[in-house]
Automatic annotation (TrEMBL):
<feature type="domain" description="BTB">
    <location>
        <begin position="51"/>
        <end position="122"/>
    </location>
</feature>
<dbReference type="InterPro" id="IPR000210">
    <property type="entry name" value="BTB/POZ_dom"/>
</dbReference>
<dbReference type="Pfam" id="PF00651">
    <property type="entry name" value="BTB"/>
</dbReference>
<protein>
    <recommendedName>
        <fullName>BTB domain-containing protein</fullName>
    </recommendedName>
</protein>
<dbReference type="InterPro" id="IPR011333">
    <property type="entry name" value="SKP1/BTB/POZ_sf"/>
</dbReference>
């Protein structure tokens, strides 16, 4: 009789479920119910008539090959290498392996395994839901190729470099199709997959969201109380830092060599006052402030413009470098 399989306990932290809970303990779904859901897998080309294992996630079956899973995933390889007791949990005579994962995530993982050209060579616009599946299940089942692809794209969208962050606004090719609220899910992914380097940028982009979205949005449940506290505290610190910088710049004397000190001082004060007024609403929007302050040099002399540009570059780069401190993120 064919064997049924259960996954071994992995040697890494698995959240939000305990590592020993890979296999569903709910009632077994009847084979006819699995057959009715099999069209989902067939539509995505992850149902193979010659497959020798059926993965079932949320009652959705995927008929695939043990050899392919073992080659792509260390967890599946270990699973199939361990002798299993005989059991009658079968679909069309093929053993079933039940996974405690969302069926969409499992589908995305399998498509990434079997049809990597659809995603791994995609230069523009991978769906954020696919990135989530690749990073989370790629980590859980140790599927290195899709995990690395997801992390590469996440690091481009949530960079450690301020210049890289500014460049995203003018780029025509974006590695991930995202909405602003996806930053909350990016924080969740970073926590699950041990990606502390993307956390400062992801936290910062969460500060751009309204309180309503942070507290009541569809992804708000992904943010822990401690992370929400870090977002709000970080937003406060960014606003205070910007206020201090703007005040210092307003009181700063014109640059050495300035030919029109009164005119330049007036233009700089007027420009910084507008940024100050906007700060009440933007609360530390670094990109907006950076471009606004830098553009003020267009109405000053060359010496003051160069001094303003230098101060602007220095302050906003230093602020970006301190995001980890503002949001209490440990590298």
């Amino acid at each position: 009789m064919p064997q049924a399989y259960s996954l071994p306990k992995p040697n890494y932290f698995l959240a939000p479920r305990m590592a020993s809970e890979h296999i569903s303990k709910k009632r077994k779904t009847r084979c006819k119910d699995l057959h009715s859901n099999a069209f989902r897998a067939k539509e995505e080309d992850v149902w193979f008539d010659d497959g020798n294992i059926v993965l079932v996630a949320e009652d959705t079956p995927f008929r695939v090959h043990k050899g392919v899973l073992a080659a792509k995933s260390e967890i599946f390889r270990d699973t199939f290498s361990v002798p299993q007791p005989e059991y009658d949990d079968l679909l069309d005579g093929i053993p079933i392996l039940r996974l405690l994962d969302n069926w969409v995530d499992v589908r995305n993982m399998l498509v990434g395994m079997y049809h990597s050209d659809r995603y791994l060579e995609l230069k523009d616009g991978m769906e954020f839901s696919v990135v989530k599946s690749f990073s989370c299940l790629g980590t859980k089942y140790e599927v290195k190729a899709i995990r690395q692809e997801a992390i590469k794209r996440l690091r481009r969208c949530y960079p450690t470099s301020f210049k890289r962050y500014l460049a995203q606004a003018v780029e025509h090719v974006h590695p991930i199709k995202m909405t602003p609220t996806d930053a909350m899910e990016a924080v969740h992914i970073a926590r699950l997959c041990d990606l502390p380097d993307i956390l400062p940028s992801a936290f910062y982009q969460c500060t751009r969201l309204s309180m309503q979205k942070l507290l009541e949005g569809p992804q708000s449940s992904l943010i822990s109380t401690s992370d929400l506290r870090a977002i709000l505290e970080g937003r406060r610190k960014l606003a205070i830092s910007s206020i201090i910088f703007l005040k210092d710049m307003m009181l700063k004397s014109p640059a050495i060599g300035c030919m029109s000190p009164d005119d330049c001082s007036r233009e700089i004060r007027n420009g910084l006052s507008r940024v100050w007024d906007d700060l009440v609403e933007t609360a530390g929007d670094l990109a907006s402030e950076y471009h606004t302050v830098k553009l003020m040099g267009d109405s000053t002399c060359v010496s003051c413009a160069l001094s303003l540009e230098w101060e602007c570059e220095r302050y906003y780069q230093e602020t970006w470098d301190r995001l980890g401190e503002y949001f209490n993120v440990r590298p």
